[in-house]
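Q:
Got a chain?
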Amino acid sequence: MITFEGWGTLGRPASLRPLVDKVAAYDDWDAPKDGAREQAIVAEAERLLAGPWPPPD
């Protein structure tokens, strides 16, 4: 939801770029779905949620 609707609406903040990039890599049809990419997305989301909100750019 963030990558497809929120990121552009928010003006593409740099603080969300790592999450958007990880989701885009996950959405690559040729990418293996071995769980590592899911873990990277969750870790980035946790990092964002643990920090100040809104995240600084």
About this structure: The two ends are 20 Å apart (CA to CA). The longest helix spans residues 36-50.
